């Protein structure tokens, strides 16, 4: 694997982004954040990419923020940049927003340490798969800081009450508990993760890529717009989809009792 903070490889219709600082348990450095943002921006309009997998190298997902970046921000503050800490922290919020709203379906595969920012990433993926033995947690308050950029996404994921308990105790919990809470969608033994990921990607690629993009946008609109507008926008999206090439192919494939073209390459 390369020395870059994030290793990037497209295999078929799937872009694999691997957090690549195994000696640091993939702690989230500013370079890693910036690289992920750039990778997501480059992928957004690439219609050959249908899914994005985010995983960690070396048996860990992400152990949280890089303490050395905190030290550099402190030096910058002492040198006169009064907003160095805010800028550093807010950049991670930009990353979480991009993952959350990425047009493609995003899958996080979590194992080992899934702490702080790592748990934030797990909370913004469309699908999060976890090892039963993974260790999740929000340790920020035990360090005297706050989970500033993570908390809003965790509230959206599992609700305010559950988030309060996790954030205000710094509690650690396993992948099994993460699935029960809804942070992860499925948890399996570590040795079964690859097979679970492969099956999940096959399921994603049974869906029409344009329809998935439109559906994801529609789902987010339910959080932002009045119901009447959401329903009106949904009707328009449905009409466009029915009349699209994908809609025509999907209907024809159903009538002919065959797989649509977008699913043929993934059928064994």
């Amino acid at each position: 694997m390369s020395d870059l903070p994030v290793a990037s490889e497209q295999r078929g219709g799937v872009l694999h982004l691997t957090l690549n600082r195994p000696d640091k348990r993939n702690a989230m450095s500013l370079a890693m954040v910036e690289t992920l943002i750039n990778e997501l921006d480059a992928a957004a309009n690439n219609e050959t990419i249908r899914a994005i997998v985010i995983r960690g190298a070396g048996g860990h997902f992400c152990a949280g923020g890089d303490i050395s970046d905190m030290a550099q921000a402190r030096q910058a503050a002492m040198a006169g940049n009064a907003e160095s800490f805010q800028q550093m922290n807010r950049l991670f919020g930009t990353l979480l927003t991009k993952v959350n709203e990425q047009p493609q379906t995003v899958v996080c595969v979590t194992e080992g340490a899934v702490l702080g920012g790592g748990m934030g990433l797990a909370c913004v993926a469309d699908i999060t798969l976890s090892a039963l033995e993974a260790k999740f947690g929000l340790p920020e308050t035990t360090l005297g800081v706050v989970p500033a950029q993570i908390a809003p996404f965790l509230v959206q994921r599992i609700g305010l009450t559950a988030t309060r308990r996790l954030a205000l105790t710094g509690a650690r919990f396993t992948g099994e508990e993460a699935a029960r809470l809804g942070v992860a969608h499925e948890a399996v033994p570590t040795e079964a993760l690859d097979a679970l990921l492969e099956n999940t990607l096959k399921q994603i690629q049974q869906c029409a890529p344009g329809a998935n993009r439109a559906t994801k946008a529609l789902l987010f609109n339910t959080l932002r717009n009045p119901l009447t507008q959401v329903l009106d926008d949904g009707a328009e999206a449905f009409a466009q989809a029915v009349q699209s090439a994908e809609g025509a192919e999907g209907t024809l494939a159903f009538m002919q009792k065959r797989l649509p073209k977008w699913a043929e390459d993934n059928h064994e």
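Residues 84-101 form the longest helix (18 residues). DSSP finds twelve helices and nine strands in the chain.
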